[in-house]
UniProtKB/TrEMBL annotation:
Lineage: Eukaryota, Fungi, Dikarya, Ascomycota, Pezizomycotina
SUPFAM superfamilies in the record: S-adenosyl-L-methionine-dependent methyltransferases
Coiled-coil positions: none
GO molecular function: polyprenyldihydroxybenzoate methyltransferase activity
Keywords linked to the UniProt accession: Methyltransferase, Transferase
Any one biological process term the GO annotation gives: methylation
Protein name: Methyltransferase domain-containing protein
Species of origin: Trichoderma gamsii
Domain Methyltransferase per the UniProt entry, residue ranges: 51-145
Pfam families (UniProt xref): Methyltransf_25 (PF13649)
Amino acid sequence: MAHPEDHHTHTLASLYDSIGARYEKAYANNPAQQKSLEWLLSHLPRAGCKILDIGCGTGRPVALALSRPPHHHQVHGIDVSESMLSVARLSAPSASFELTDVRDFQSDSESFDAVTSYFALLVDISQDEIKQIMQNIFTWLRPGGLLVFSTVPADIEQDAQSWLGRRAIFTSLSEEQYMELLKQLGVVVEYSHVENFMPKAVEAGICDAAQVTEEPQLFIYARKL
């Protein structure tokens, strides 16, 4: 079945609502993401750590992997897509979930042992807002707390693009800009790398092959001093 190009400019919520649970299938089995989760699990100091998952999506693989036995971490996922969250509540029943934008999310200082954010800071956002969110993350983290973060690195702002056959307004920072930002925030970057990933969007029934491109994906593992 052919998927016509959607020329409507989506908001962040409508973009992911239009994809829903199919996103999980398209982005499943990402070796770099799995490696980052294994790193996080091996570096958390104990079972039952408190973790914030920004842009939690369907809850898999992140919230599920972190909250299930034997780790039993206390995962709180936030997302703007109710269709994603409805799946997440079933996928990771031991985690808690909240419908909210990270720009509106509030928490006490030093209240989390770790924060994860996979491709959450890309749509309907400005570079200044990305920088403020990163600052907030390290306020929410306890000393020694960990951040696992991923994005598509590029120095772009308010750039209209088509992604998986859907039009949206994209903003990001380059790898160099992220490294400089983290340096300014005074955190330690334990490891960073860029890997290419081809979403399985055709198999997931999201769009046609001509509407899918390979993505460079930046992964950053950082620690608050």
